[in-house]
Structure formats: C-alpha cells, structure tokens
Design a protein that fits this description.
Largest sheet: 4 strands, antiparallel
Structural class: alpha+beta
Distance between the termini: 28 Å
Helix content: 25-40%
Number of strands: 4
Amino acid sequence: MATRLLFGARHRLGRWFGWDDAAGELPIPGTNEVSLTDRLPEDLRGTAADLEFGSLPFAPLYRTDVEAAAELSNQTVHGVMHLAWVDQGDGRYRGQMTVYVKPRGRFGKRYMAFIAPFRHWVVYPALMRKIERAWNTRVPQ
C-alpha cells in the first residue's frame, strides 16, 4: 500500500515537472549510450523480451534462470535493478536485489538523497516480500 502511494506520488510529480519526458532517450551519465543493451553478451540479448514490470518504469535488459536485470532512465537518474536467486544449499534460495544508480546532475543527486529513506525502508523491503511470495507460490517447499 505505502509503495503504491509512493510510486503514485512520484509518477504524478514526474508528470508535473517533466522528469519522465524523454525517458529512455537520455544518455547514461558519462557516456553517449542510452541503454546498456549493447554491452550485453550475445547470449543474454533478448532473453527478457517478454518480461513486464506493470506500472514500474523499468525496461528489461536480460533474464536467466537465477537472475534478471532491468534499467530505468529519466531526467533524475539512470538506474539498473539486478535481481538474483542465491543458492543456499539443500534446495534453498535467497533473493538478492541490487540497485545501481547514476544521478543526473545536482538535482539528481539531491533527489536520490531525498528518496533514500523511502527506498530503503519502504520500497525495497516491499518489493522483496512480493518477490518472495511469488517464488513461494511457484516452488513447493
């Protein structure tokens, strides 16, 4: 619930201030590239074409049996979310998520500093719980 509220507020602010205009067309900070897709090895290209994130503004990069990555680009940041299942032995796995972010300029740095508590205390834990629920319904224990 809180995550939806936060994403809704961010989406609304993005519309009002144009933060999401030209999303996916902006170069990654410090490069001329607009996506990491061209950096992927051939065997990973196109592996996530059917992956959808619903209302989340991520574009899939790749997917394997145990990991996936997606990127996001807007006026504030270029970011990559990496999700992986880490084998704990005895058929047990642990979900692991990493988010890499390159802010766009001073505003992007301030924006990231402002939202850090929301990301770490609300969004990421909720996302991991959702993934865990999906995993547990998919794999009998």
